[in-house]
Write a structure and sequence with these properties.
Helix content is about 25%, strand content about 25%. It is of the alpha+beta class and about 425 residues long. It has two domains: about 210 residues, FAD/NAD(P)-binding domain (3-Layer(bba) Sandwich), CATH 3.50.50; about 150 residues, D-Amino Acid Oxidase, subunit A, domain 2 (D-Amino Acid Oxidase, Chain A, domain 2). Strand 20 and strand 21 form a beta hairpin. Helix 1 runs parallel beside helix 5 and helix 1 crosses helix 8. The structure holds flavin-adenine dinucleotide.
Amino acid sequence: MLSPDGVLGVGCAKDNGSTTTMTKPMTPDDSTTVFDTAIIGSGIVGASVACFAAPHSRVLLLEAESAPGYHSTGRSAALYEPAYGPPQVRALTRASRAFFDQPPPGFASSLLLTPRPAMFVGGPDDIETLRAVHRSLLDAKLPTEWLSMEEALRRVPVLRPEVCACAVLNCSSSDIDVHALLQGYLRQARAAGAQMVADARVAALARSGDGDAAGGIWQVDTVDGRRFHARQLVNAAGASADEVAALAGAAPVGLQPRRRSAFRFDAPAGMDVQGWPAVMAADESWYIKPDAGLLLGSPANADPVHAHDVVAEELDVALGIHRIEAATTLQIRRPRSTWAGLRSFVPDGEPVCGFDRGCVRTALWTWPRPKEQLHLELGSFAIQCVQFVDMRVLAVNLAGFTRFSHKKALTRPPTSSPSSFWQYQAR
Ligand SMILES: Cc1cc2nc3c(=O)[nH]c(=O)nc-3n(C[C@H](O)[C@H](O)[C@H](O)COP(=O)(O)OP(=O)(O)OC[C@H]3O[C@@H](n4cnc5c(N)ncnc54)[C@H](O)[C@@H]3O)c2cc1C
């Protein structure tokens, strides 16, 4: 369905049954239009690239499903947690903060972030892990507190003292309004002229013309027989990114989709949980967070699977319930809803962004320089470090290929200045 302002509806959270579909998909003016860039996939990554690229070039955004955000983006726990993930992801998450706090005018009608501290808890065996979390927060100059067991219990009275020897509070964590974020990107992309087509699963990619440098054109065929043309492809297909790369004859980046399951359940009777922090086990074996009057729980699993429309396995949910009940006095009789989504990883868990070496001959937005298919895969943390995307558009213009180095990401967070971005890149 189109929203009142004419923006593509956003399907958020498959679990709540409220996935919005587009009844009137937009189509390009005619099948002979040659777009500068065809972006494949309209999750948070594809939508954000479309937003930043559309003011500079003719953008086509193709989505396999009837609504953007149907896959991982609509199934997340919606947490902005700068202490979570590998070093580069943490640096990018911190660097994204400014965008969340001050998005462009008209981007969203409400705040994108609502403060929600995150509390990492653990038993005596986890003290070193918790100290490391605390140190990394202090090093990053993020507001943090080391909590005694009593202080942790005051914040979340259901914690079992024997399981929670101490805790670290990250006061800079927040809930992300993922729906508003995704819709903001799509709205801005469309306002800048991007064309968006739903129910357009890309099934074949081929080069036509001389196939060389800026002269070559990509033919993008969808499963239902439609054909689009573009000078450059952006692969933002999430867990399916390697499959899309293969269609273009590009080398896979070795993505491993991993299932993460989650469920919502009733808060204890008479207890107002809305002000609780998100609570995460130091060993990453479970987490809970308040969610619209209920609690969201997860076994924090990362089970390798092939890319598909994944559902929560009963065993995942049972494991999550077991671990949460062992660490707290919560009793989870029956979850109100369950769901699962895919988080995709390369071996070091860091983001992937760059041109494929084996897939030459696409043109750049404004540069008449031969370039290759652009891979974009922010792995399992795309939402919280998504502002980085405008940096990636700069990457397209400036550098062509980048796999960011941990060291530089930590010491030189990206800024919006092209020149400093250039220095930030590393091979
Ligand atoms: C349970 C869970 C909790 C999470 N919690 C958080 C969190 O708290 N914070 C956070 O930052 N991240 C979290 N994540 C991770 C986050 O959801 C993902 O990193 C992010 O949504 C990935 O975005 P994406 O755009 O790459 O992928 P997706 O949202 O999956 O988008 C990819 C799109 O590409 C489309 N597509 C695929 N193939 C084709 C094709 N052939 N043709 C056309 N379109 C195609 C798909 O239909 C899909 O819409 C969580 C994930 C899960 C599952």
